[in-house]
Every structure is written in C-alpha cells, then in structure tokens.
Amino acid sequence: MKTITKANMMDAIAILAQDAQVLVPMTVDGISKFSLWGSEGTLAFSAVNTLLPPKDSLFPQTEKMYSYQVENQTITSLDIHNEAKQQIIFGIRPCDMQSIQCMDDVFLTKTFVDDFYRVKREKLITVCIGCNKTAPTCFCESMGGSPAGHGAADIQLCDLGNSYSIVAQTAAGQAVVEKWQGLVRDEEGSVPEVSCTLKVDAQGLPAQLSKMFNHPIWQEVSRKCIGCGTCTYLCPTCYCFDIDVQNNGNEGYRFRCWDSCMFSDYARMAGGHDPRPSKNERIRNRFLHKLEYFNERYGKNLCVGCGRCLTKCPVHVDITLFIDKVKEVSSIESVQL
Questions:
Q1: Rounded to an integer, what distance in angstroms lies between the CA atom of residue 62 and that of residue 56?
Q2: pLDDT score recorded for residue 94
Q3: What is the pLDDT averaged over residues 223-245?
Q4: CA distances from 64 to 23, 79, 149, 241, 260 (A)
Q5: Which of 66, 72, 123, 146 is least surrounded by Cβ atoms within 10 Å, i.e. has the fewest?
Q6: Is the pLDDT of residue 57 over 90?
Q7: Distance CA 328, CA 325 (A)
Q8: Which residues is 36 bridged to in the sheet?
Q9: What residues are paired with 34 via a beta bridge?
Q10: Residue 337 pLDDT
Q11: Are 198 and 12 in contact (CB under 8 A)?
C-alpha cells in the first residue's frame, strides 16, 4: 500500500497550501475546530473529533449574499457574493464526511441548487482520516457509517502508527497524491480495526416513528430540554438559517446566518401563529427530522452518530437513549397487540 510518514505530513500539507486554503483540526482558545493551516493554535490531529464540525467551510455561520446601492428608489449597484476559493479539509473524520453528503442532498438535489453552497462544494477537496479510536459518545456505525473511513472522501488516510496509508478515491484525490511524489512510499501494512462501543438499534426506526407523531414519548423526552440550541449549533448536519438585511442609508447588504429550530420563535409566522409553540413540538420536530423525515426524502439518517450533542447538551438530552425508548415502545406495543 502507499503510505506517508507522520513526520512528512506537515510537508505534505505545506505543498497543498501553495494552491488552496487548507483547513486542519486545531485547538484555538480551548475550542477544537477546523482552522486555516498556519494560523494560531495547536494542531489536533490526535483528537477523535473536533468540538465544532467543519460545516461552516461550506455553510458559513454568517454569509453575505449580496450588496446593493440605491438612489431615488432605483438600484444603482448589485453585487452577488458567491465566489469561493479552493479549499481542502485535511483530517476530516468519517462521520463529518457523511455530514457533507447529507448537506449535499439538501443544497444540491431534489430540483433545488443553492449556488452559495455549490460554488464552495465544487472547490472543496476532502482528506479523511479514519479513526483509530472512538469516544464513548461515538455511534456512527449505528447510523450506517464506519469509523474506519468514508468512500465519498477524495483521499482516505488510515492511521498505521508511524505513518498513514493513502487511498485516492477520486480524480481530484489522485491529483493531490501526485503532488506528494517524493513523500509517498510503498510498504506492507494492515489497517487496524476499530469499532464504536456505543451502539443503538436504528433498524426500522423511520417506519416506527411515522406512527408516533402524537405519542406521549415526546413529553417525556422534552421535559428537561432548556431550548438553548447547543445541539443544533454543534451538529454537523443542522442547516436551519435565517435571512436578514443590513441597511445603511442608500446602501446595504443581505445576509443569511445559522438559526435553530430549537428556539421558541423559529417557526413563528406572520400574524403570530406558531406551529411549534412548546419544546414538546420542537424536540419532536428535531428528532423526527433526524431519524424519519430525512430518511424518507433522501434515504439516509440526518444523524451521523458523531456524538457532539451527547457530549455538550447541558441537561444531557441523549438521542441514543431516545432511540432506545422508541424501540422499547415498539416492543411493548407489539406484545399488547
């Protein structure tokens, strides 16, 4: 197999940084996230996963959409801001790679294409590093993934100890590997097996949930939620956003920014009606979106099993325990029938 030593990895990244913005896992001010190679911070390649997912590389937390100037109620200038630079996410984990596939489904398929997302996605190369260990909160296997790697990444690396195995999985990935000539070598080796210790049974979950819209389970699971939105902001697949405008006299700009379906005013309509007036309806919508609705529309779960929400929810709302409860309900009701 083709490999590259960990000692040569920095040289490999430096080569890529000559032609693109390279984002790598780093700890900055105590927060692990994907940051620009060469910026201030500590490299965090050994972390199981970053606290903040890399989704803002494609879907920024705040994104200016267009600027304008007006004079006498006539538009005199209109600039659309949808240009993108070549980006490489180096060190993305398999669960986060799956999250990009989910975002692709949302922003690029089913007859609708979001150009702001598209231009960034077309200029993105992903270098995935398979996990050689998992956190107690990781459960990607139960959501259909694998900690070993992801077939959609342009390049798949696996940790062999002192080196990484290299597999180019796309033409773009092959072009990157060719830039590493002199750093890559052939050697014998085997990829270590790794598995998540946290497992849930998600088989048949969408069908089961489709019959539970009015079930009392929602009152039980939503009781302790405080509606802070932490789960949605750390989730690699949450994509709720709001669009607003900043006017400054005769000029201004329109922008979009992340929002959260867990906030009390998110679904409120003009006139004041709110179809999700309590946290009962809001957490029901969140879990059904992750585990039923997205599966029905795109054929996959919107939860990728990264475990971030399990780790950081201040009141320990746990989607894996919710799945277990749904399974218990299914078993009990089957016996009663």
A1: 9
A2: 97
A3: 96
A4: 21, 10, 34, 13, 19
A5: 72
A6: yes
A7: 5
A8: 23
A9: 25
A10: 45
A11: no
Mind spelling out the 3-state secondary structure of the chain?
CEEEEHHHHHHHHHHHCCCCEEEEEEEECCEEEEEECCCCCEECCCCCCCCCCHHHHCCCCEEEEEEEEEECCEEEEEEECCCCCCEEEEEECHHHHHHHHHHHHHHHCCCCCCHHHHHHHHCEEEEEECCCCCCCCCCHHHHCCCCCCCCCCCEEEEECCCEEEEEECCHHHHHHHHHCCCCCEECCCCCCCCCCCCCCCCCCHHHHHCCCCCCCHHHHHHCCCCCCCHHHHHCCCCCCEEEEEEEECCEEEEEEEECCCCCCCCCCCCCCCCCCCCHHHHHHHHHHHHHHHHHHHHCCCCCCCCCHHHHHCCCCCCHHHHHHHHHHHHHHHHHHC
Residue type, 169: Q
Tokens encoding 19:
């032609």
| Burial of 140: CB neighbours in 10 Å, binned 0-12, 13-18, 19+ | buried
- CA 209 to chain CA centroid, Å, is 23
**Could you give phi then psi for residue 6, rounded to 5 degrees?**
-65, -30
Query: Tokens 């019959």 belong to which residue?
Result: 211
Distance (Å, whole) CA 119 – CA 121: 6
Residue with tokens 């993105």: 124
Q: Which residues contact 244 (CB under 8 A, 6 or more apart)?
A: 254, 255, 256, 257
Q: Letter for the amino acid at 316? A: H
> Which segment of 97-101, 183-187, 233-237, 299-303 scores lowest on mean pLDDT?
183-187
pLDDT of residue 207: 94
**In terms of pTM, does the model score above 0.70?**
yes
Per-residue pLDDT, averaged over 110-127, amounts to 96
